[in-house]
Structures are given as C-alpha cells and as structure tokens.
Design goal:
The radius of gyration is 23 Å and the shape is globular. By secondary structure, it is an alpha/beta fold. The strands form three sheets. It has a seven-stranded parallel sheet. Helix 4 packs across helix 6, helix 5 crosses helix 6 and helix 6 packs parallel to helix 7. Strand 10, helix 12 and strand 11 form a beta-alpha-beta unit. It has 19 helices and 16 strands.
Length: 476
C-alpha cells in the first residue's frame, strides 16, 4: 500500500506559502480509504457530521475569555498540545490521562492547549493551565472556506488524480467519483488555511516562548503547520505515544521516497516519546524515538490493588471505535459458549462510548454487560482476560489480567504481523482456550520492552536533555 506514495512527483504539489506538501494533509485520509475497503465491514473514514451549532457556540463563547485569562501568564518552557479524547473525571475534576501526567511532572514550566472532545467543556480540572484550541480551529475552518480559490482546487484535484491513478495501477483499487470529489474539496480548503494556521501558531509560540513543543498526533498531517512553525523558531518538538503503534499503522510508516524527503521531514517532530522499546521496532518514521513509558499506566499500576484470583472472572471484549457491531457480536456469541463460567463484558472505545451507552441505558445487551467505567484500569480489576484484535488495551492489560488474547482477523494480521500474545480464530476457539489450562505470563523482559519502567524519571531526563528547567512541584 505504501508504494502508492513512493513517487517524488506526489511531493511536488505544495502549499506555495509554507512549502508543506499537500500529500502530508491527504495521506492518512486517502490511505485509510484503501484500508477501509480492504479490512473493515463499515467505513473507516466517516464524513464529518454537521457541527452541533448550539453546543459549538456555547463552547466557543466560553473558550475565548478563558484563553484570554490563561494567556495573562503565557510563558512556559514546555507547551503540550493534546486532543480531548483522553479527558476523564477524577474526584470531580477533569484530567487528561494522555497529557496531564506530563504537565504534572513539571507544572511550573508547562502550558497545555487542548481540543474539545464532542464539544464537552472539560472544567473544572486538575491542570488549570490549559488553553482551548476550538477558537483557532473554528477560525481556520472559516479562513479555509473563505480563501479557497481556483488554484487551491486545481492543486487538490491534481493530487487526487495522481494518487488515485497510482492506487489503481498498483493495487487495483478505484476511488469512487463521489469520494474523490469530497476529498478534493476537503484538501483544497485545508490547504487554503495552512498559511493562516502557520502564522497563528508561530505567534502563539513566540508569546509562550517554549523550549519544547509536545504534540499528540504530531506525525499526523493536521499537525504539520504547528510543527513547522516550531521548527522555524528553533523549538524542539516531540510527540507522545497515545495508543498502539504498529507495522500496520499508516501514521508511523511511510514509503522510502517520502521518508527521505526534506520537506516532509520538516513537518514531523524531532522525537517520538514511546511506551517502550518494543514499539520502536514497529515503525520506520524518520524521527528520534525515546522509550519513556506510559505515564497513565505507570500511575495506575502504583495505585492498582491486584484483586484475588477468584475475583477476576470477567472476559473483557474491547471495541475499536469503528466496527461496534462486530465486537458486540463476538461478545454475545462468546457468552453462549462460556457465559456460565465467565461474565462477558463489552467495553466500547472512547470514540463510540457515548453512542453505546445511550443505546443500552440499562448497561446490558443480550446477556453481556456494557462497561461504563471511565478508566480501563478500573475494568481490569475484575477481568480474567482481555480480548480484541487491534486495541491498545490488549497491551495495557499486560501484568494485570491473567490472560490477553488477540482475535486473528485481517485487521490484526495487518496491524500486528508480530505480537507476543496467543491468538484465536473465532468464539469457539476462544472459549476452548479460556476454559482450558492457564498459560504462563509474559516474561518480565518482554513486559519491560513494551512498558519502559519509571516514566517520570525518563521524562524529566528527556526535558533536561532538550534544555528545559525542571520545576520540582507536586504531581497530579
């Protein structure tokens, strides 16, 4: 599939103001269109629904004065940009499990900027130094629409035509005319907003004055303007790992022509802060990888009281946020095979959680329980086994639950051609393994390769290495 982009001509179509190759913006939506048709039963890339105007306006109305207040004291040596997917309630306060641990390790010198997830207002919160990105993103959407002209549309159409032809020649995959038109218009508007976004991020960075920018999904195309602005100001850049990365992850594996292109590399962070050494072996992205561990897992492991073996009976089936019915079906069929011995629990992915909990308000569906716990580590307390095919939760369960099993699907084979867990082919095979003899846990060396110990010391050492001052404050 990566051969589709293995052509220098694809990188010649660039934003004339920033020099960012348009393929940087398009590659993940385009490649996931191919993956969707090949590996998924439902569309992997779903067109964005209309913005809930009332919720959006209320959130923007709160975000603008909130940001003004936070920016009264803007200076920080570390600026962390996060999505809002990881926000959870903790003792009545919102806490971003993906980014706020980093902020708590150096609170006096860290400022965060966060997206709103589902337009939810994530306050009051543990980390108070948080800007909201919604006003900037809304303005960029307006600018992109207003400034999108014939030149933007012509470049976007050419890009779609070039990669579409390569996909047809190399893979026998045809992009439909409707999908091509939608992607072309989307790309034109996104490219039209790039110069404005670049200037906006550059102004923010000059105001904050960080030595280091850490951005969630920094290797993804939408981060290109932010990362390029930081690079042009001489600021070190990094991405923290926020989930499973693998040999089949499109955001972290590229063709050699793209990998060696200087213009593409300038849109990437300098560093990727990984959970452990095992993950580094899965990818070929031209960034410097540093194994620091998983902050949230590290903190939860300290607090987690290992339940007695007899209390861990649940079989936890993890959703992927896309094919909800597929995993619900597996859970229901599994309950028919071994539900009398093991309670079967379906845990929705954060992206599908609200919809699933709304559909099953009782918390039950055809003999299986729907897991409503905010934090997966709460669910692990009562879980004997964790089951899925491509979920990060499989790895998070290592060293906590008795068993981890991978569903042998096309997605799993694509994403993880090598992994350390036993596999199963269907619910009958899974039931036989669950009802059979226990298996030995992973060796400590393998666990440490997946999860580097002592994330805080590793992170503080990384900060010192890029010239940041370490403030000894209280942790969150």
């Amino acid at each position: 599939m990566l051969e589709v982009e293995n052509d220098s001509a694809i990188l010649e179509l660039r934003c004339p103001d920033t020099g960012i190759p348009l393929w940087v913006l398009l590659r993940i939506p385009f490649l996931r269109s191919i993956m969707s048709d090949a590996l998924y039963s439902v569309p992997m890339v779903v067109p964005a629904s209309g913005i809930p105007k009332v919720a959006a306006m209320l959130a923007l109305g709160r975000a603008i004065p909130h940001n003004r207040t936070v920016l009264r004291r803007p200076r920080a040596e570390v600026l962390i940009a996060a999505t809002g997917v990881g926000t959870i309630l903790r003792d009545g306060l919102w806490f971003n499990r993906l980014s706020d641990h980093f902020a708590s390790a150096n609170p006096g010198q860290t400022l965060a900027i966060e997206d709103l997830f589902a337009w939810r207002w994530p306050f009051p919160r543990v980390n108070r130094r948080v800007l909201i990105s919604a006003p900037t993103l809304a303005a960029a959407a307006i600018v992109g629409t207003a400034r999108c002209g014939p030149s933007h549309r012509e470049r976007a159409a050419r890009m779609i035509a070039v990669v579409g032809q390569r996909a047809r020649n190399l893979l026998g995959w045809d992009i439909s005319s409707g999908r091509a038109a939608a992607l072309s218009e989307w790309l034109a508007r996104k490219s039209a907003a790039l110069p404005w976004l670049y200037r906006n991020y550059r102004a923010l960075l000059q105001r904050v004055g960080p030595r280091l920018v850490i951005k969630e999904e920094a290797c993804y195309g939408p981060s290109a303007a932010f990362i390029l602005a930081a690079r042009d100001l001489g600021i070190a850049t990094a991405e923290y790992q926020h989930g499973a990365i693998s040999a089949g992850h499109d955001a972290y594996n590229v063709a050699e022509t793209v990998r060696s292109d200087k213009r593409f590399r300038r849109t990437l962070p300098d560093y990727l802060l990984c959970y452990g050494r095992w993950w580094l072996e899965q990818i070929n992205m031209p960034v410097q990888c540093v194994a620091i561990g998983n902050p949230h897992r590290g903190q939860q492991m300290l607090a987690l009281e290992r339940a007695q073996a007899g209390e861990r009976r649940d079989i936890l089936v993890l959703g992927d946020g896309i094919e909800t019915r597929l995993y619900l079906g597996l859970a229901r069929r599994l309950a028919e095979h071994c539900g009398e011995r093991f309670p079967i629990v379906f845990r929705p992915h954060p992206l599908e959680r609200a919809a699933v909990l709304s559909e099953f308000p009782s918390g039950w569906s055809e003999g299986i329980r729907i897991d409503a716990a905010a934090d997966i580590y709460q669910s692990f307390r009562s879980s004997h086994a964790v089951v899925s095919d491509v979920s990060t939760g499989l790895f998070e369960a290592v060293g906590i639950t008795d068993r981890v099993l991978v569903w042998n699907t096309a997605k799993a084979r694509f994403a993880f051609p090598a992994h350390p867990f036993p596999s199963f082919n269907d619910e009958a095979d899974l039931a036989r393994q669950l009802l059979g003899a226990a298996v030995a846990p992973l060796a400590p060396a393998t666990v440490n390769a997946i999860w580097e110990p002592d994330w805080r010391a590793n992170y503080v050492s990384f900060l010192a290495g890029v010239g940041c001052t370490i403030y000894e404050g209280t942790s969150a």
